[in-house]
Amino acid sequence: MIMFLFRHIAIIACAALTVATPARAQPFDVPFVPTPQVVVDEMLRLANVGPGDFVIDLGSGDGRIPITAAKKFGARALGVDLDYHLIIQSEESARQAAVEDRVKFLQQDLFKTDLGPATVITMYLLPAVNRRLRPQLLDLKPGTRIVAHDFDLDDWRPDRKITIRKNVFLWIVPARVAGRWRMRVALPGGERAIELELRQRFQEIDGLARAEGQIMAPLWEPRLAGDAISFVVVDGEDRDHEASLYFEGRVSGGVMEGEVRRGVGSAQTLMKWRAVKVGQ
Amino acid sequence: MMADFRAICARSLCLPLALLLAPSAASCVAASEVLDVPTPYLPSTRLNVDELLRLAEVGPQDVVIDLGSGDGRIVIAAVRDYGARGVGVEIDEMLVAESNDNARRAGVADRVVFRHGDVLAADLKDATVVTMYLLPVLVATLKPKLLKELKPGTRIVAHDYGFPDWKADRRVMISKTYYLYIVPAQVAGKWRLHARLPVGERDYEFDLDQRYQEIRGGARVAGGFLPAFEARLVGNRIAFVLVEDDMSHRFEGRVQGEMMEGVVRSGYGPVLTENRWRATRVPPDAK
Questions:
Q1: Which of A75, A166, B184, B201 falls between 20 and 30 A from A53, CA-CA?
Q2: Closest to B268 measured CA to CA, from B284, B283, B248, B251
Q3: Which residues of B fall within a CB distance of 8 Å from A265?
Q4: Do A151 and A167 meet the contact criterion of CB atoms below 8 Å apart?
């Protein structure tokens, strides 16, 4: 928490500096500075923030992220900060920007903030704080976007990273898919039962598929983005009759379902699939 | 069970590994020496053909040239399943005859041409997609020819063996490794970039470095340098971001020889502005 205080002091100091120096002379990475406006813009852009979103900014400082989210991206937003003076200042800035009906600021501990309603979390915290927050972030609804700059979430690799003045990271909270699944899929040769075994480390997944009476085949190009899952299984008895099955679907608790394409070009067929979780 | 999985994967991992280990001196081998190393005829499977053409996103507008076309299966599939036109180049005359038979049987003879000849002498100027399944040494020897003769934006797809020193634009692993390369426009050098931005008219000296499709650089301004962030080059399409006045200016455009032009978007939301930009190449000898 002492770190936050430092950051806040720096924010005030820098706000004063910004006024005093011409905007073109860009100061470079100084510890505990407020997020430059251009980086705020790009964080919200990377998270693809829009009118349907509710943004929670953890450590909202002078309120620039929630205010920008409302003013430029049409979202609703909440900023939380420990510093009462910054909360007052943020509320005043929101009024000046005419977004006070869509932006709220609360003086409270970010660890005690209910993050559940958020579709987007923004943060510029220190690595140790990020780490402490991680379990809470992973528990959010799959598909929730998290954006941060400068500091990442350690070994939870970002889904995307861009560099525009600073490193900006995006994570998408992954659905939990690790375990054994039983799938039924209608294929040109008839309905088939396939057993899937998925391993997961954050959004990175891999796994195996076994059709009745066949050897285990790996899942190729496995991807998980929020609740959207996709992978490819090579189907076929021998080398000359192989075809790729492209699975795409959504995960909802213990059920995954979607569509599977077989073949390519004019010979392509599209069928439904559904899988149910049967074990860890 | 997971151990099995790793064993399966290890098999497919050998390929990229083999690539890394392939001597980088391959590109120095003279063409005449290469010609003496015959590429064994190992036909791609139906699956390989599908994945290659899918990765290249082949469609009716495309002319697909298959280098080392064997019995013609890739070219025929490109025409029959994707509506493209196709050209095969094959050094084995018997296989050329077989390809023509196969094309007739598939009912696509009017949309394919099979040429008997050496891939190193192939006429590539009409290609929008090049497919190849060749040994590393031949892939390396072909590279300068492909980069010189193919138009920017042409897709090159390969399986098993890609270009060791050219990072693929996409890489897909489905039983084996497939590589997609998009021939980049030549943008390295000095440019004069003119744009009208919300902060005023700008006339930047703009420098670009290039390694295949990877580019970096920036704009020189009085007393400073604006790095080009998130710079991307895909064929002749270029994009980069300049930050000035605490605002991002997002440039997108097309490269046409000595000129680039497009649209630049500044800011977001109610303050978003859109303007044209244009850059012309500064000849190397000019100050």
A1: A166
A2: B248
A3: 50, 53, 77, 80-82
A4: no
Task: List the domain boundaries for chain A.
Answer: 2-172, 179-279
Closest residue in A to B174 (Cα–Cα): A220
Q: Do B270 and A45 touch (CB under 8 A)?
A: no
If we measure between CA atoms, which residue out of A198, A196, A244 comes closest to residue A224? A198
Class at the top of the CATH hierarchy for domain B189-281? mainly beta
Say yes or no for a CB contact (<8 Å) between A164 and B243: yes
Q: Over the stretch B95-127, which tens digit does the pLDDT of each residue have? A: 999 999 999 999 999 999 999 999 999 999 999
Per-residue confidence in pLDDT tens, chain B, 287 aa: 333 333 333 333 333 333 333 333 333 333 444 445 566 777 888 889 999 999 999 999 999 999 999 999 999 999 999 999 999 999 999 999 999 999 999 999 999 999 999 999 999 999 999 999 988 999 999 999 999 999 999 999 999 889 999 999 999 999 899 999 999 999 999 999 999 999 899 999 999 999 999 999 999 988 889 999 999 999 999 999 999 999 999 999 999 999 999 999 999 999 899 999 999 999 987 55
CA distance B73 to A121: 51
How far apart are the C-alpha atoms of A137 and A144, rounded to whole Å? 9
Shortest Cα distance from B36 to chain A (angstroms)? 30
Q: Domain spanning A179-279: which superfamily?
A: Quinohemoprotein amine dehydrogenase alpha subunit, domain 2 (2.40.128.120)
- Render A142-207 in DSSP notation, one character per residue: TT-EEEEES--BTTB--SEEEEESEEEEEEEPPPP--EEEEEEEEETTEEEEEEEEEEEETTEEEE
Beta bridge pairs of residue B114 = B88
Residues of B with CB below 8 A from A198's CB? none
- Range B254-258, long-range pairs (CB < 8 A, 24+ positions): B255/B152, B255/B185, B255/B186, B255/B187
Please give the structure tokens belonging to residue A272.
């439904």
- Could you say which architecture CATH assigns to the domain B2-182? 3-Layer(aba) Sandwich (3.40)
Prediction ipTM score = 0.84
B→A contacts (Cβ < 8 Å), by residue, are 1-2, 4-5, 8-9, 45-47, 50-51, 53-54, 77, 80-83, 172-175, 224, 229-230, 241, 243-248, 267-271
From the candidate CATH numbers 3.40.50.150, 3.40.50.300, 3.60.130.10, 3.40.50.920, the one assigned to the domain spanning A2-172: 3.40.50.150
Domain spans of chain B? 2-182, 189-281
